[in-house]
Every structure is written in structure tokens, then in C-alpha cells.
Specification:
There is one protein chain. Helices cover 44% and strands 11% of the residues. A hairpin with a 4-residue loop joins strand 4 and strand 5. Helix 2 packs antiparallel against helix 3 and helix 4 crosses helix 6. The chain is an alpha/beta fold and 257 residues long. It has 2 domains: 105 residues, no CATH class; 122 residues, Glutaredoxin, CATH 3.40.30. A 5-stranded mixed sheet has the order 3-2-1-4-5, covered by helices on one side. It has 6 helices and 5 strands; from the N terminus they run H-H-H-H-E-H-E-E-E-E-H. InterPro entries: TraF (IPR014110), TraF/TrbB (IPR039555).
């Protein structure tokens, strides 16, 4: 267990000269006190004894307690250097900043080592970041999405495209939806909600209040064999995004990360 060795360790560090102040990583800028004191009283070092017994008993501090104490100590050193910017005060704070840099570096290296000890924690094992590998990975993802459309079509699913024929956005979306259906071989039926039919759809008719939807335009998956109805998308949607929606439905929205 880490005990209170931080302050002695910092004071024994060699004096740092001609260094630029380190950036803040964990801490906020100090607030200017309303009534600055000439000599702010530094926070007392935490006692390690239990005063309830005649003979003091030491106890270990948790990592959270140690960090809370260190935050207070650093804030005091920072405020002291700002209010009384002597060379000694600035050097003290610079040593603390260097100590933090070292701890941050140690944490980063331990993180890298941990990913080798337990590779399941690494994002790159499932999602490569190199450009060449990403091309292959993206191609595999697209293939899985396309297969989801084919699989659902084979299971008997088709698409209802619910639209308002008088809406310019719905009219613009219609040919894209028709092209998608033609490309992946899934049936498409357009249903007009306002009685205005769009001729860019191969098959369309008036809904006549038979099917209610929350919003239009809407794409609904329908399986006449099982009478299943599954909302696929609401609003304007690209073909790439629509392709992904099929994979979501086919996998029952299983997480892909």
C-alpha cells in the first residue's frame, strides 16, 4: 500500500532549472481568493496515527484517500507559487508537475502491457486501425449487411415504404428505396398516406388507413407468412445506413463492438 512518501520524495528531487511549466492534466486553474493572505498556510500532512489509544496505531490509506490528499497538496503548492511566486515555490510546484508526468507515463506503459496480457481488452483485435486492414474489415462488414438483406428476403420479408406523395423529401427518397430493393432482391410496396402516388415506385397504392405508423417517411419490414411487422427506419435515410438497419434487425440489435 502506498503511504505518505510523496512530499519527501518531491523535496529530494534535484532542482529543475530553465523548464517550462507543465500543462494541467488533472487539475483546474486556481481561483483567486477574495482576500489574499501574505503567507497561505500549507495543508498539514495527514496523520498516520489513531489518537484514541495511548500508543498510536498506524493504518494504511486507500488509493482514493491518498489521491485526495495529493490533490490538496498540489493545489496548495500551486496556489502558493501563484500568490507568492518565489523561485523556491515555483521549483516545488515544477517538481510536483514532473512527478505527475512520470506517473502518467508509467500508467500509459502499464496500459500497453495490460493489452498484451489480456488481448480481449484491445479494440484493435476486432477493429483494426491500419488503413490496409480497415479496407478488408469494412468489406467484411458490408458483406455481412448484404447477407442480412438476402437472408430476410429468403425468410419471406418484404418492405413497405410509407410516404406522403406531396412531400418533396418523400418523393426524393422513393427512387433510392426502389433502387435498394432492386439491388438486393427484396420486395417493395409503396403505401401513400395522403393519396398522392409516386410513380418512381414500381408498385404503390393508397394506404386507406389500413396501416398506422408513427411518422413518415417510414420503412417497415413485413412478413406475410408470419404476420410479423418490424419498423426498420423513420425519416430520410441513405442506402448505406439502410443496409446497416437490416443487419441490426437480423441480429436483434446485437452490439457490434
Amino acid at each position: 500500500m502506498l503511504k505518505y512518501f510523496i512530499l519527501p520524495l518531491l523535496l529530494l528531487t534535484q532542482t529543475v532549472s530553465a523548464e517550462t511549466a507543465q500543462g494541467w492534466r488533472w487539475y483546474n486553474e486556481p481561483r483567486t481568493p477574495q482576500q489574499p493572505q501574505a503567507q497561505p498556510t500549507p495543508p498539514p500532512q495527514p496523520t498516520m496515527t489513531m489518537t484514541q489509544t495511548p500508543e498510536p496505531t498506524t493504518r494504511n490509506m486507500t488509493a482514493t484517500e491518498q489521491m485526495e490528499w495529493f490533490h490538496r497538496y498540489m493545489a496548495e503548492a500551486q496556489n502558493e507559487a501563484m500568490i507568492n511566486p518565489s523561485v523556491d515555490n515555483v521549483i516545488t510546484f515544477m517538481k510536483i508537475s514532473r512527478f505527475i508526468d512520470g506517473k502518467t507515463t508509467d500508467f500509459g506503459m502499464a496500459w500497453k502491457k495490460a493489452l498484451l496480457v489480456d488481448p480481449e481488452l484491445s479494440y484493435r483485435t476486432k477493429y483494426p486501425t491500419e488503413s490496409l486492414a480497415r479496407k478488408t474489415h469494412n468489406a467484411m462488414t458490408v458483406k455481412a449487411k448484404e447477407q442480412a438483406v438476402v437472408t430476410m428476403a429468403e425468410q419471406g420479408y418484404g418492405l413497405f415504404f410509407m410516404y406522403n406523395g406531396k412531400s418533396p423529401l418523400d418523393a426524393q427518397l422513393a427512387p433510392s428505396v426502389q433502387a435498394f430493393a432492386d439491388q438486393y432482391g427484396i420486395g417493395l410496396l409503396g403505401l401513400s398516406m395522403d393519396g398522392e402516388l409516386l410513380t418512381t415506385l414500381n408498385s404503390t397504392r393508397n394506404n386507406d388507413g389500413k396501416l398506422n405508423v408513427l411518422s413518415v417517411p417510414a420503412l417497415i419490414l413485413v412478413n406475410p407468412k408470419t404476420n410479423e411487422i418490424k419498423p426498420l427506419a423513420y425519416g430520410f435515410i441513405s442506402q448505406d445506413e439502410l443496409l446497416g438497419r437490416f443487419l441490426n434487425v437480423a441480429t436483434d440489435y446485437a452490439p457490434d463492438f
